[in-house]
Design brief:
By secondary structure, the chain is of the alpha/beta class. The protein contains eight helices and eleven strands.
């Protein structure tokens, strides 16, 4: 098995976390990289999505919940400290990146003692979505990331995300009922769930070694903060600063 490194890093600003998420891919690692992270309350739309079709912007504004954009496709998600984010960066081409991520999250949930099934861009327990998946590729590799609802209440998700529009479009989120581990009766803390991710990742990708961010990752982080994640037009419309 090839080696796997886990980057240990966190940032106070959700936009900075999203910038670092993309930076891990842009830095073109030669071996798989794992990053496990959380955000404060925010809504994150997919790369090409329209905010007005996905988000109750007035409610977000009233509650002080920022609406942000990531570089990958996929659907809109709600982040809060009860929602764990798992980023997996794989070097080189891969025909089935979602399969690798699906295997990781399936094994994680099994480690926690729950049966699950892979469905449309996510992992389900029964008919409720527990994890959502998204992918972003470059010429040198790919990033696949997942949310994992540890304790986030479904009502909080529904407060900020819209119902399905009457006129479906290709980039719209695929709406599903969601339920957290806690709502399935599994009241594990974030530390226990993080440990389960690490066990599953090491079994799938090789012995895991933790490290600090590399200089190249931090350079990309600063660049992406400038061109995207600290630029309001990126979050509003997907436009980059020149």
């Amino acid at each position: 098995m090839i080696g796997l490194s886990e980057v240990v890093a966190s940032f106070d600003d959700p936009a900075d976390n999203l910038a670092f998420d993309e930076a891990l891919l842009r830095a073109a690692p030669e071996a798989p990289v794992l990053w496990i992270w959380r955000n404060t309350d925010c809504v994150v739309v997919g790369r090409g999505q329209k905010i007005e079709r996905e988000v109750k912007a007035d409610v977000c504004a009233s509650d002080g919940v920022p609406v942000l954009r990531r570089a990958s496709g996929g659907g809109t998600v709600f982040h809060d400290p009860g929602n764990l984010n798992i980023t997996l960066v794989l070097p080189g081409p891969s025909d089935r990146p979602l399969e690798a991520l699906g295997e990781l999250m399936t094994a994680t949930v099994a480690e926690l003692g729950l049966p699950s099934r892979l469905g449309d861009r996510g992992l389900f327990v029964g008919d409720a979505k527990l994890c959502g998946f998204a992918v972003f590729r470059t010429r040198t590799g790919l990033l696949a990331h997942s949310t994992l609802l540890v304790s986030t209440a479904a009502e909080r998700v529904g407060r900020y995300l819209t119902a399905a529009p009457a006129d479906p479009r290709p980039l719209d989120s695929h709406r599903s009922r969601v339920a957290s581990l806690a709502e399935h009766g599994l009241r594990k803390g974030v530390a226990d769930v993080t440990a389960a991710v690490r066990v599953a990742a090491a079994a799938q990708l090789g012995e895991l070694a933790t490290r600090k961010p590399a200089d190249k990752e931090l350079e990309w982080h600063r660049s992406l903060q400038h061109t995207r994640y600290h630029y309001p037009e990126w979050h509003a419309e997907g436009a980059q600063r020149k």
